[in-house]
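One-letter codes give the sequence; the integers encode the fold. A sample entry reads:
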Amino acid sequence: MNNTIQIMGIFKNLMISDSYPIASPIAPDVITDLKRKPAPMEWDETKRGVYSDIQKLVMNRQDYADMLEVMDGLEYNGLTLYSLTQAENGELAWSNIYIRNIDTRDNDVYVDPNLTDKLLIGEDGMSVFVYSFKEKCFQIRDKASTDYVIEEYETFSDLLSALIDIVK
């Protein structure tokens, strides 16, 4: 059995026992569309870049895509793994991977140069979780000082294992 799916099952059980809401899995046709369709041309460069990075992550890292087969992100005990499709009142949720990455790359107040070439996939109170395309790994970075890499993980399931240890 796939490690990502096993670990997401553990998260799911913890969330059920603690009465946390559980997001539904992503519909297979949504993933297929993401893998095949380019970003709309009417989107600005930042939005197209974020879409392209999410597309690359889902296409090239099956271990990450496997999470979406179990649930579309999660929020548990201060830990958030960003969702792909969740919405609130017809608007994308604050924890949507598109929203978080667009805000990180195109922000009137501050654009963090340590994160603009990475894809944010989640966070907790002290850290951000990213995928670094350059290093081809998942990273936990300090939220206040994002140039500081706390840990690097070759696989998404390794990152999930570390995160589950944090929230238990």
User: Anything to note?
Assistant: The first strand starts at residue 74 and ends at 76. The helical segments are 3-17, 28-36, 45-60, 62-70, 97-105, 156-167.
